[in-house]
Amino acid sequence: MRELVSSSSSSAALVAAGNAALRGWWEEVNESPAWQDGAFFSLTAAYALVSAVALIQLVRIQRRVPEFGWTTQKVFHLMNFVVNGVRAVVFGFHAYVFLLQTKVYKLVLLDLPGLLFFSAYTLLVLFWAEIYHQARSLPTDKLRIIYLAVNSIVYAIQICIWVYLGINDNALVELVSKIFIVSVSAVALLGFAVYGGRLFVLLRRFPIESKGRKKKLYEGWDCDDNLLHLFPDKMHRGGSICI
């Protein structure tokens, strides 16, 4: 019995020592300018890479089908390029961003990429929704109106929050702003999951006569959150998918 108690005490002591060492390491990292700079510059490189990939994809699509003008796909890649480019710039110049005297300017620089991210990925949801509705012979007239209305409301609310914080620096309103950004991101994720799942199931039911047609029907590309998006290569406005 004594041996069991002694063993338990030793294990508890080892766990406590490990937790203390880990906590000390984290505090050292958290207070180290070198570690902080390394983390921010790593994020800068990652976002710059994703931004470059989005730009390359945009150029590739434009060269392949220049006659279609600015399609939803092209606008999405452009917005993806802008979103990740802005994030790369913000993280790259983080030292100057955090030194801004006016707090609301700092919040705008940190929150604006999140809003642009919301617009970019709700645009992708719109693209998927249009394909799904056309394939099911459902009306698509109101989808773009809904997209514009939702984005307008989100931007209007966030701008009002920024204006209020510029006039009156309030910790509660700042917290509300953070919760709002998280909430709109969750809404985008919900639409992403709903229409992405529906479209995936729909495409699996399409008759595929050849590997070439299957390759054209499905096209995947990686985005900044390493998600795989599947969508038809071309879309006919009359309600069928043009291969």
Structure description:
By secondary structure, this protein is mainly alpha-helical. The chain has 2 domains: 1-31; 45-231, no CATH class. Helices cover 77% and strands 3% of the residues. The chain has 8 helices and 2 strands, in the order ααααααααββ. The protein has helices at residues 2-30, 33-64, 72-92, 94-98, 103-135, 141-167, 171-204, 211-217; strands spanning 219-222, 228-231. A two-stranded antiparallel sheet has the order 1-2. α2 runs antiparallel to α3 (72-92) and α5 (103-135) packs parallel to α7 (171-204). The protein is globular.
Per-chain topology:
Blueprint: H1 2-30, H2 33-64, H3 72-92, H4 94-98, H5 103-135, H6 141-167, H7 171-204, H8 211-217, E1 219-222, E2 228-231
Antiparallel strand pairs: 1-2
Helix pairs in contact: 2-3, 3-5, 5-6, 5-7, 6-7
- Rg value: 24 Å
Which range does the strand content fall in?
under 5%
Strand arrangement across the biggest beta sheet: 1-2
Q: Which residue ranges are poorly predicted, with pLDDT under 50 across at least 5 consecutive positions? A: 208-243
Q: Name the average pLDDT.
A: 75
The largest pleated sheet is described as: 2 strands, antiparallel
Give the termini distance in whole angstroms.
75 Å
Helix segment tally:
8
Order of helices and strands: HHHHHHHHEE
Q: How many domains in all?
A: 2
Query: Per the principal axes of the C-alpha atoms, what is the gross shape?
Result: globular
Estimated helix fraction: over 70%
Structural classification: mainly alpha
Number of strands: 2
